[in-house]
Design a protein that fits this description.
Blueprint: E1 2-6, H1 9-25, E2 29-33, H2 40-53, E3 60-64, E4 66-68, H3 79-86, E5 98-99, H4 108-121, E6 127-130, E7 152-155, H5 158-164, E8 177-180, H6 183-187, E9 191-196, H7 202-210, E10 228-233, H8 234-237, H9 243-251
Parallel strand pairs: 1-10, 2-3, 2-6, 3-5, 6-9, 9-10
Antiparallel strand pairs: 4-8, 7-8
Helix pairs in contact: 1-2
The structure holds fructose -6-phosphate.
């Protein structure tokens, strides 16, 4: 696990954009996209690079982490719509190749299996962007999620519903169920990039990276992965016990070693 601690959100976003750009420039690639506020700056930076430096997404495809159950794709808060209005509409990523779980499926259990199969058929995800919830969720794997879970329906916690109410008119409008890639599914991506900023995420980041491996903090599953980059600001890093070491390791990163 590697930590990149940056002073500002703009620098966090720029580092994440550097990592994604590396994959996109190498040729056909499969991106794992998260929604929520954490990756927004990175998406804006990637869109700027597309506009100003011709960063070409034409050979990329993407899979989203999750989707609300029962919310029509046309709803402006469905993740199908959000990823388009926040990112895909600003780059030349073919919208037909941006996949997400179908929250309107009449058979949501089968939909989870179909989605996992689609990811596998695409050759798996090369780089997966992840935000983290204040309760340690990734995707919408709430505390108690099996560490080997597959894409399936989950019930949101009250805290997550409250956290997400800011995107909806009222807390009553937030769906209670979601389809989310499982922790096992997420762990199959070849590179995980966790993004967080702000003091509100400090405890979750410390628990994920330095706490015990436990379903109580689903994000702790990143400790089992062979290639994780945690890109965070000073505030989100503030509760890490080995902060000085992480800074030292980054400062002394050999020039030949990429993220
Ligand atoms: C969204 C997702 C969630 C968010 C998490 C943090 O696709 O998978 O796990 O990443 O809820 O949300 P923000 O970034 O809004 O703090």
């Amino acid at each position: 696990m590697e930590f990149v601690i940056r002073p500002t959100l703009a620098e966090v976003s720029s580092t994440v954009a550097d990592i994604v750009e590396g994959y996109v420039r190498r040729g056909p690639t499969t991106l794992g996209l998260a929604t929520g506020s954490s990756p927004l700056g990175s998406y804006q930076e990637l869109a700027r690079r597309h506009r100003e430096s011709g960063l070409d997404f034409s050979q990329a495809q993407a899979f989203l982490l999750d989707e609300y159950v029962g919310l029509p794709r046309s709803h402006d808060q469905s993740y199908f719509s959000v990823i388009r209005s926040e990112f895909v509409d600003y780059v030349n990523l073919d919208t037909e190749r941006v996949h997400s779980p179908d929250g309107e499926s009449s058979d949501v259990a089968a939909e989870g299996e179909r989605y996992d199969a689609a990811i596998a058929e695409a050759g798996g995800v090369d780089v997966q962007l992840l935000g983290i919830g204040t309760d340690g969720h990734i995707g919408f794997n709430e505390p108690g999620s099996s560490l080997t879970s597959r894409t399936r329906v989950k019930t949101l916690t009250e805290q997550t519903i409250l956290d997400n109410a800011r995107f909806f008119g009222s807390v009553d409008d937030v769906p209670h169920h979601v389809l989310t890639q499982g922790l096992g599914t997420i762990g199959e991506a070849r590179h995980l990039v966790m993004i967080a900023f702000g003091e509100g995420k400090a405890e979750a980041i410390a628990a994920a990276a330095e706490g015990p491996l436990t379903a109580f903090c689903p994000a702790s599953v990143i400790q089992l992965h062979r290639h994780v980059t945690v890109v965070i600001d000073e505030a989100a890093a503030s509760k890490l016990q080995l902060l000085d070491y992480y800074r030292y390791a980054l400062d002394h990163k050999p020039p030949w070693q990429a993220f």
